[in-house]
Design a protein that fits this description.
77 residues, mainly alpha
């Protein structure tokens, strides 16, 4: 039996759409994780410890700034 003809040729497809989708998903995952972690930390410190609102806010801002600095890094994923 003969192999069916195919329009697919390995390495010849334009993958720019897949690359941009992958970059978008990775960025949303990365920054969304930072936002969730910062929010959980802030709310936990505010409501579950004697740190209060101001202590939780300062800690949350520090974590958000440090996290954004580290996530920007060298431009990699």
């Amino acid at each position: 039996m003969a192999n069916p003809a195919s329009d697919y040729h390995r390495g010849e497809m334009d993958i720019s759409a897949q690359e941009s989708t992958y970059d978008l998903v990775m960025n949303l995952t990365k920054w969304g994780s930072l936002a969730i972690a910062t929010s959980v930390l802030f709310l936990t410190l505010w409501f579950c410890t004697p740190a209060g609102f101001l202590g939780a806010l300062v800690t949350g801002v520090v974590v958000a700034v440090l996290g954004s600095f580290l996530l920007r890094g060298n431009g990699g994923h």
